[in-house]
Structures are given as C-alpha cells and as structure tokens.
C-alpha cells in the first residue's frame, strides 16, 4: 500500500470476493428461513437522531456512553450512525403506524451497524447484523418460535457448538424489588466495583451483573438472582418458554446473570454463545421488550427480537459452506474475428446464470486454457482461424480431454444440451 493511498476508517469491516459470495449464501438462507416464518424486510435509515438511541438503549449503557458515532450535521442537529437495529425498527413501527395495519408485525433487517469500540477479532467499528423483531405478541410461544428458528438457522448452516443462554429480567412489577435488593448488595461491595459500575449503581445496578471486569465479576458471584424474585406472570411466562424449548429438545442454560447491556429488555433475554470465537463469543442476542414501543411514543405493544453478528456467524459458518460453483464453459477465441463470433453466444449463455467466461484481450491458446483450468470449467470451446474457415468450434471436455467439433449454427443448442446434462 503506497503512502498517498486512501484507506478505510479504522475498524470499518468490508467484505471482498470470494468472501462476499459466502456472505450472500448465508444472507439468502437467513432471508428464506425468516420469510418462511412470515417475516418481511425493512430497509431503514443508517443515520438517526441521536435522541432515539439515548432514549431507547439507555443513557448509562456502554453503547450510549462511549460507543456511538455521533456528530452534528450542517444545521447543527445531533445525528448518530445506528449502533444497533432495534431502536430504528421501533422508530419505524411508530412512525408508519405499522400496528394499525397488522395486529402482528414480523420484520427483519440486514445491514451495517457502527460502534466506536477497540477493533479486534470479531469486533469492528463497522460490523453487520442480521436481525428481526416481532410486534404485537405477548405469548411465550413467540419467544419459543424465534429461539427455535435461530437454532434452525445454525443447524442449516452446520454451525455446531452454539449454546443458548437464557434469563428472565422480570417486568415493571417485579424488577424494582430486585433492583433494590441488588443495590444494597452492591453498596456493601462498592469498593470492589469498577468505576463504571460504581457510577451506574444508583440508576442501573443490573449492569454490574454482566460487567466484564474481573473484580466486578468476583464481587457479584453471590449476588441475589432475579429469577428468585419474578412475579407470578413473569415466572409463568419463563417456565412456559422453557417447556416449549424442552419439548423441542433444544439445549439451553438458564443464566441468572445475563442482563444484556441495553435498558429496554423485559422478561426473556438470551444470547447464543459459541466456542471457538475467543473473547467475542456472542454470536446472537436479544429478548423481549414489552415497553419500548410505548416509551418511544407508540401504543403499548409487546415485542421480541434478536440480532446476529454477521461477521461472527461467518467465522463459524465460513468453511462449511458449499464451494463456489465454477462457470460451465470457457469460450476461447483466437483472434478478433473469433472473439466477434463468440461474443453474442457469451452474452446469451450468461443471461440467467453464470455459465460461460470469455476474455476480450485475445490471449494465446495456452494462457486461455490455463485460466480455464484454474476456473475449474467443465468444457472449453475453442475457435481459431482454421475453425473459422471450416465453420466449426472445438469443444474440449476438460476432464476426459475428449474433443468434438460443433458446427457454428448449432453451437448455442449443443452447449445448452451439455449444460442441462451436467
Ligand atoms: P458484545 O458482548 O460482544 O460486546 P453486545 O452485547 O454489545 O456484544 P449486541 O448489542 O447484543 O452485542 O449485538 C448483537 C450481536 O452483534 C452480538 O452478539 C455480536 O455477535 C454482534 N456484535 C456486537 N458488537 C459487535 C462489534 N463491535 N463487531 C462485530 N460484531 C458485533
Ligand atoms: Mg458490546
């Protein structure tokens, strides 16, 4: 890389071929699976009013406190590149009154997110998420549908060793009691907590439960557990979900410390954790947020959602995907006249699928055959001056090395026949 060349902003992850082909395979599987369960795609703005995230994700969260790309535009409005998808989907749900159109709305999104974090393996400043949200369904059947669907996605992609961690955070009735209990517990251990947790303790004591700081981890080992203080409704909701997962034979671990780093969750929260990803081991996460739609100015609407980290999913799925398919035939012209003859055939063959290659630079036979070999094509179709004179092309089977002559007027037909046999 030369000194005066321009590079991406640090930590902004881009996807190049052939990796981009694999990304699309996985994205297609995700879309097919979700559309099968009645989800439809939302394509949303990447830039939002900063207030949206401050109000939804919560002021004392890592994302809002230190990870957002926030700046003023030319008319001094504070804007933020979206750090996650849920807030925007809820904003859109309210803005377009989607709840009035359908009683249940199932929406998914695919796209980049932006967080100012320290770039490392599995953690970038521009990364990508596959996510979905369901609005209007309070039942734990919805939680189960979504979690089992995610497990199906991992299965379809042959991703193994992903374990579901599950918790319930209760609701506005039972959480305050727990918060108070936890606050007193933390107060007694205040000096062992990191500065973030000390500062957030009053407003947001739950955050200390999933702080990564070793000394905080140790301090909360015997902390009160939220699942001990759930109200009856929350308890039934959670046990209803667990039963459905048990019946479907999906393995999971109840993890009472899983509180997630965002403020909007109620009841079910979850993460899918993978071995083999190192410290960045959460491949997907989400939960229920029954109050957020109303908190952002809409009607009270229960909701459940998740986001998958696309980069982390690709690290797990990458090499298990089917190899990329090769083009079927390399058209090999020797000289400009042969190139002119083969060009319309090339255009026609590729109309609906990648079938043929054709090089416009009039290279030697040897170099064109070498490239055809590298591309892994099944046949080459060679037209040189002799063939032009006779009105034929040489069709060479690259595996058997067998060669046949095809006459010009039957070229398209003959190739289509070979392609269909193959
Ligand atoms: P982590 O604990 O790894 O910071 P998180 O709780 O901040 O994750 P969420 O906000 O729940 O992550 O986002 C959902 C998923 O998006 C994560 O499980 C992860 O797979 C992915 N993700 C989050 N932040 C990043 C990032 N900076 N780079 C790449 N992927 C990310
Ligand atoms: Mg994070």
Q: Give me the CATH fold name of the largest domain.
A: BirA Bifunctional Protein, domain 2
Gyration radius over CA? 28 Å
Average of pLDDT:
94
Amino-to-carboxy terminus distance:
43 Å
Shape: elongated
The name of the CATH superfamily of the largest domain reads Bira Bifunctional Protein, Domain 2
Summarize the main sheet: 8 strands, mixed
CATH class of the largest domain: Alpha Beta
> How much of the sequence is in beta strands?
15-25%
- Reported CATH architecture of the largest domain: 2-Layer Sandwich
Task: Provide structural commentary.
The protein folds into 2 domains: 19-174 and 230-320, 2-Layer Sandwich (BirA Bifunctional Protein, domain 2); 329-421, Anticodon-binding domain (Rossmann fold). Helix 1 runs antiparallel to helix 6 and helix 6 runs parallel beside helix 10. An 8-stranded mixed β-sheet has the order 1-5-6-11-10-9-7-8. The protein is α+β, with helices and mostly antiparallel strands. It is built from 16 helices and 16 strands. The radius of gyration is 28 Å and the shape is elongated. Bound molecules: adenosine-5'-triphosphate (ATP) and magnesium ion. The site of magnesium ion has 2 residues, from loops.
